[in-house]
């Protein structure tokens, strides 16, 4: 099913004429570097925080504990709030920046918002690479977080709006794919820079984030703004010209009129957040929020943030820990590609439920191995068990990457109706970043206190989210957005009780509830 901005599908489900033009492909590739930047920031932090020279300069207490595990034991040697703040500050800044980015995306356009994100990224990279003290390091991460907030708002929306309908679903996951490629790139860089003698390898790791930052900035300068954005801001002639250019045909009048009408209806929504709380919109809101919380409670970001630290804790040694992180990063990329091809074939529910079983089994096996083989003061994990742990973590990562990773964003994007779409997606992004921050800030402390039980903790959440999926998440595969209420919500055993026919949305134009088919896709901009 396509996932986009204002859907290029008529109420009858007829596709508008559109060619896959070079300008669309180039624009999407350039814009998707925002995901590359986000992924690199996620992956690089875990690598540098396992580098002795980095710890010695910024976190001497942690450095002493890693040199002498007897002080606190294996599980607690990285337990430090400052070290966790280095990682998590990015997501707290991203959460705050989301509110400003929602305004710029709507008022200034997607292209300019991506440009602002690029400038934030470049400034953050410079500060991080040149950091002389902890305050400078954290401030650099905060600027990177602001870039994440702006990029995560504008890039997926830009991708979904500029792509033709028939490839919109795949391009919507392109952002997620670039995030995983960024994580893999960071792991490879960390593996190389950890071997540099002289104490400056970590600076190179942080500084190379400038490559995707520059790509995003240059890309934002070169691409055209989406026709949806131009029409939304009243620049109709320019929007029509851009639409003709990106579609590669002169037969764009039906789609243009559809976009104008969708924009008009969206502007008439006076109280989107009030509408979001109405009874008839509760199923979409509950599912969107639950998906974001569950996505983080799988434990995936804890593993991707701190993979080298985690493997080092398990006794792999620094070199082997970084190498193992590269393996998990590669599995993450390949499995996300699987989701692009399978999501519209096997359906959302099948992927989520299968992944739940796979993640639960792998986490329980990891917990059992650690319980018996990795004690507080054990020196090394037997090679056979070490390989099994890596295999199980890869099994876990692959399950997440073709299910809860992309679907955590895709399902909310295709279920919110037009009158609550912007507000709903803003809530989705904010909840995701909030819980990402919480997990990033708490994980190393949880590892210290729970020890091997950390994996049992996350596996317990996997059981809860799988039960939630089984009973409360409906299948939305191949169902047009305009038919979602009739074919999904009104047919669902539980959610149908919230679909009151006599309740109308709180908007100035009473027919908006019938036109929810105009909205489809990841659109985190809000009517704030």
TrEMBL record:
Residue stretches making up the Major facilitator superfamily (MFS) profile domain: 27-477
Coarse class of the protein's main subcellular location: membrane
Alphabetical list of PROSITE patterns matching this protein: MFS, SUGAR_TRANSPORT_1
Protein name: Major facilitator superfamily (MFS) profile domain-containing protein
Sequence similarity: Belongs to the major facilitator superfamily. Sugar transporter (TC 2.A.1.1) family.
Pfam family, one: Sugar_tr
Entry keyword annotation includes Ribosomal protein: no
PANTHER family: IP12678P, SOLUTE CARRIER FAMILY 2, FACILITATED GLUCOSE TRANSPORTER
Transmembrane segments: 20-40, 82-100, 112-131, 137-159, 171-192, 204-224, 285-309, 321-343, 350-372, 384-405, 426-446, 452-473
UniProt key word Membrane: yes
Coiled coil (UniProt feature): none
Highest rank taxon of the organism: Eukaryota
Membrane topology term: Multi-pass membrane protein
Compartment(s) of residence: Membrane
Keywords: Membrane, Sugar transport, Symport, Transmembrane, Transmembrane helix, Transport
Organism: Gossypium arboreum
SUPFAM superfamilies (alphabetical): MFS general substrate transporter
């Amino acid at each position: 099913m396509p996932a986009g901005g204002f859907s290029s599908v008529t109420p009858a489900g007829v596709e508008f004429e559109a060619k896959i033009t070079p300008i669309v492909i180039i624009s999407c590739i350039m814009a998707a570097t925002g995901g590359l930047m986000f992924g690199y920031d996620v992956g690089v932090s875990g690598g540098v925080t396992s580098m002795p020279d980095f710890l010695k300069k910024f976190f001497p207490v942690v450095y002493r504990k890693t040199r002498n595990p007897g002080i606190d034991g294996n599980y607690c040697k990285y337990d430090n709030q400052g070290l966790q703040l280095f990682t998590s500050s990015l997501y707290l800044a991203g959460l705050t920046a989301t509110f400003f980015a929602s305004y710029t995306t709507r008022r200034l356009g997607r292209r300019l918002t991506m440009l602002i994100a690029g400038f934030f990224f470049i400034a953050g990279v410079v500060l991080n690479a040149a950091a002389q003290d902890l305050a400078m390091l954290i401030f650099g991460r905060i600027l990177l977080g602001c870039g994440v907030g702006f990029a995560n708002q504008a890039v997926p929306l830009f991708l979904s709006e500029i792509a033709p309908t028939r490839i919109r679903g795949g391009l919507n996951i392109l952002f997620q794919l670039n995030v995983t490629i960024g994580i893999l790139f960071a792991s490879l860089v960390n593996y190389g820079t950890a071997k540099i003698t002289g104490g400056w390898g970590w600076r190179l790791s942080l500084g190379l984030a400038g490559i995707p930052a520059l790509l995003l900035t240059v890309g934002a300068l070169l691409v055209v703004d989406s026709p949806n954005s131009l029409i939304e801001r009243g620049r109709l002639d320019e929007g029509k010209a851009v639409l003709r250019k990106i579609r590669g045909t002169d037969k764009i009048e039906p789609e243009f009129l559809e976009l104008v009408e969708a924009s008009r209806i969206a502007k008439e929504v006076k109280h989107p957040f009030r509408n979001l709380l109405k009874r008839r919109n509760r199923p979409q809101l509950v599912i969107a929020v639950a998906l974001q919380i569950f996505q983080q409670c799988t434990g995936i970001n804890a593993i991707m943030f701190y993979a080298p630290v985690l493997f080092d804790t398990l006794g792999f040694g620094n070199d082997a820990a970084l190498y193992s992180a590269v393996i998990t990063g590669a599995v993450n990329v390949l499995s996300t590609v699987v989701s692009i091809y399978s999501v519209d074939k096997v359906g959302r529910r099948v992927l989520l439920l299968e992944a739940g079983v796979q993640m639960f089994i792998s986490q329980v096996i990891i917990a059992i191995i650690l319980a018996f083989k990795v004690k507080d003061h054990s020196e090394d994990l037997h090679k056979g068990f070490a390989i099994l742990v890596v295999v199980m973590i890869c099994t876990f990562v692959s399950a997440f990457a073709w299910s809860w990773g992309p679907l955590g964003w895709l399902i909310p994007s295709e279920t919110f109706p037009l009158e609550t779409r912007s507000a709903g997606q803003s809530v989705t992004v904010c909840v995701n970043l909030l819980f990402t921050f919480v997990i990033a800030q708490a994980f190393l402390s949880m590892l210290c206190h729970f020890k091997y039980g950390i994996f049992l903790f996350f596996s317990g959440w996997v059981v809860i989210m799988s039960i939630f999926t089984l009973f409360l998440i409906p299948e939305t595969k191949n169902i047009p957005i305009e038919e979602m209420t009739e074919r999904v919500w009104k047919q669902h055993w539980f959610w149908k009780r919230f679909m009151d026919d006599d309740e109308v949305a709180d908007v100035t134009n009473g027919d908006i509830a019938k036109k929810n088919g105009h909205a489809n896709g990841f659109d985190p901009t809000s009517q704030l």
